[in-house]
Design a protein that fits this description.
single chain, alpha/beta, three-stranded antiparallel beta sheet, 26% helix, 40% strand, globular
Length: 183
């Protein structure tokens, strides 16, 4: 049986908030990027709390915004209402929170991803990370064996050779694996 193979620069697994931002950042750097999602209908989905901002997440949104991310821009276009939290307290704890139109937020983020140069959305389940064993002595001068990421395999068997794999598989969980052997 023939195996389909494709070579890319970056594989992003997951298309929630972190996956969308990671994929957009890589593609905007000119890296050929694929973002994998089990369902394109769940891109940037807000299943339980359709808010952006607030006391904790607001700091993260501001940092993403400062780095050119889309989360803040997207909520600006899709919010239903906004509220300043902690207004009766000092300005250090004031925090803006916007409630989104969940469906519109997701649709708009998907459209942004679809229109981004160097970025492809694949509706596919990634089932395996592909590694090569490397001799650490040859790479870093340290003894022992280590592994180097080389890509991913989907449920259908398609292999995507990649220089880096970014796992964004759930709330606040994002890992980066690169083809460079790390310490």
């Amino acid at each position: 049986m023939a195996v389909l193979e494709e070579t890319i620069d970056i594989a992003v697994i997951g298309a929630g908030h972190a996956g969308c931002e990671a994929a957009l950042a890589a593609a905007r750097m000119g890296l050929e990027t694929v973002v994998f999602t089990v369902s394109v209908d769940s891109i940037a989905m807000m299943p339980c709390n359709p808010n952006i901002g607030g006391t904790s997440k607001g700091h993260l949104v501001k940092e993403i915004d400062a780095l050119g991310g889309e989360m803040g821009k997207n909520i600006d276009h899709t919010f239903i209402q906004s509220k300043m939290l902690n207004a009766s307290k000092g300005p250090a704890v004031h925090s803006l929170r916007a409630q989104a139109d969940k469906a519109e937020y997701s649709r708009r983020m998907r459209q942004i991803l679809e229109n981004q140069e160097h970025l492809v959305i694949k509706q596919a389940e990634v089932c395996d990370l592909l590694w090569d064993d490397v001799n650490a002595d040859a790479v870093s001068g340290k003894s022992g064996a280590t592994k180097k990421i080389r890509g991913v395999r989907t449920f259908t068997g398609t292999v995507y050779e990649a220089k880096a794999v970014i796992l964004c598989t759930g709330t606040y969980f994002c890992l980066l694996y690169t083809s460079d052997a790390a310490d």
